[in-house]
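Final report, section 2: Outcomes. Of the targets proposed, Ceramide synthase 5 isoform X4 is the one most frequently requested by collaborating groups, and we therefore present its record in full.
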Amino acid sequence: MSITKYPDEKRLEGLSKQLDWDVRKIQCWFRHRRNQDKPPTLTKFCESMWRFTFYLCIFCYGIRFLWSSPWFWDTRQCWHSYPYQPLTSGLYYYYIMELAFYWSLMFSQFTDIKRKDFLIMFLHHLATIGLITFSYINNMVRVGTLVLCLHDVSDFLLEAAKLANYAKYQRLCDTLFVIFSAVFVVTRLGIYPFWILNTTLFESWEIIGPYRSWWLFNGLLLVLQVLHVIWSYLIARIAFKALIRGKVSKDDRSDVESSSEEEDITTSTKGPCGRSSSNGANRVNGHMGGSYWAEE
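The predicted structure is given below as tokens.
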């Protein structure tokens, strides 16, 4: 705790002489000690369950609300009579709940396990909160509801796949991940640019003309699109590895320091201090067992 969690070779040799232990035993001790700081599976399951519940409920609420809204079927309705568009109670609560949730994600990100895409997620939360607040202040709530609903449609699928992974239902996890990947790519790389960005960039310009906030609003939306491309690349890498190996692999975003998944696999497949087990416990129905890929 005071010097390092990952002693180098020289420090390991010094500890070996002080304790009269072999180096392998000391390495094993440090690995187990680091794993003690990792949150248990139950904690991660509860966190994913909370997010799954929220995403599913808010998506159902959003699609029910938008189904009877004219701008859901004709995006040009987002700009008719702008900015003198009424703010209904249903639309207000939809916005407030989404804003409160993303603020909670912004703060909890600093207490959760840090991962490789920490800065990307931080930028995503900033852009999302900025978009929700900015569109609410400028009464661009109609197109804002379309953006929110479009993003929620794939989020609950990811959380469902993680829940299945934590519960050791690997086949269900793989199936949900495939569905999530397809929905994510279609919505974020297809519907979002050709439906959302089309109306904010071109239809708004045509109907109400350019305005000062137009540049900031569309700039934030384009930032989200860049993040969508990055995440689609990461998802494609996982899917490609799954096709080659016949299983869904570890999430490429998890780093060594914050996510000890590889150490968990090593610990579960080996006895104390590196002795291999003979029961092949790292396989579940022909797939990788444990929380091997879904550490978001």
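The radius of gyration is 23 Å.
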